Amino acid sequence: MMKLKKIGIIAGLSLALVACGGDDSEESSAESESNGEVNVGEEVEYTITGIEPGAGISQATNKALEEYDNLEGWTHEESSTAAMLTELGEALDNEEEIIIAAWNPHYMFAKYDIKYIDDPKGVYGGEEYITTIARKGLKEDMPEAYEILDNFYWEVEDMESIMLAAQEKDLEEAAQDWVDENQETVDSWSEGVDSVDGQDIELALTPWDSERASAQVVKIALESKGFNVTLTPVDPQIVFQAVSAGDADASLAPWMPQTHKDFYEKYEGEYEDLGANLEGAKIGLAVPTYMDVESIEDLEPKE
């Protein structure tokens, strides 16, 4: 019987004109426009558009506001992934400025013309990897599932292809299509693994399409060996808490070494790390390619 209860995830722009001296301010603004200069901070209302408060990238963005002196007075608008993507799409349609908290693998980089901006202070870390964690005792209790989870590894392009296809169809269908087209790879994860007769296993995941994609693919692989698989989307901290307590059997969702570092270290020793299941991931701030900004340090402080 599954022990982990599902937890629900709660998932134009107006320009503020600040009077700083009447006619002088208006003349200065007009002069800037005539010179082709754009104050990016003003254009985005000194706001970074983020996602869910519980996400690792949200924590990193809050830290960036503290670490970068030029971001003094800026606001990090935490909402949801869906809301951020909606605002991004609308800004691109209207060729407006926007700064978002971004990550890949994600279909946004395949669908939209956006780019990361440099992070000289390294607040968002370097290249990330996604690791697999399992509850202690899983290897003894479910050696067949343990081996499949331990063998699971794929590429950034694999995950993003499912996420992009899922914009036109159900993610479950997109995952099945990927499995059908990459059966040899999937079979390699379970090669030599004996089948079981309806054994229950629960995987905890974060509620984002990247982790839903990996979870669905592994669900198919496990089911092919006779497992009954439950996927439970929860907040990142709950992923580590549930696996550490044995309330979930495993997770394919932790991003390391930066995004989920705090949770990883908080529960370290209470779960088993099976190693990377995907490498080459990244988090950071991103903007449309038409924006003339290359670094976080290019952003103007709020006056």
TrEMBL record:
<feature type="domain" description="ABC-type glycine betaine transport system substrate-binding">
    <location>
        <begin position="39"/>
        <end position="181"/>
    </location>
</feature>
<protein>
    <submittedName>
        <fullName>Glycine/betaine ABC transporter</fullName>
    </submittedName>
</protein>
<dbReference type="Pfam" id="PF04069">
    <property type="entry name" value="OpuAC"/>
</dbReference>
<dbReference type="GO" id="GO:0043190">
    <property type="term" value="C:ATP-binding cassette (ABC) transporter complex"/>
</dbReference>
<feature type="domain" description="ABC-type glycine betaine transport system substrate-binding">
    <location>
        <begin position="200"/>
        <end position="300"/>
    </location>
</feature>
<dbReference type="GO" id="GO:0022857">
    <property type="term" value="F:transmembrane transporter activity"/>
</dbReference>
<dbReference type="InterPro" id="IPR007210">
    <property type="entry name" value="ABC_Gly_betaine_transp_sub-bd"/>
</dbReference>
<feature type="signal peptide">
    <location>
        <begin position="1"/>
        <end position="21"/>
    </location>
</feature>
<keyword id="KW-0732">Signal</keyword>
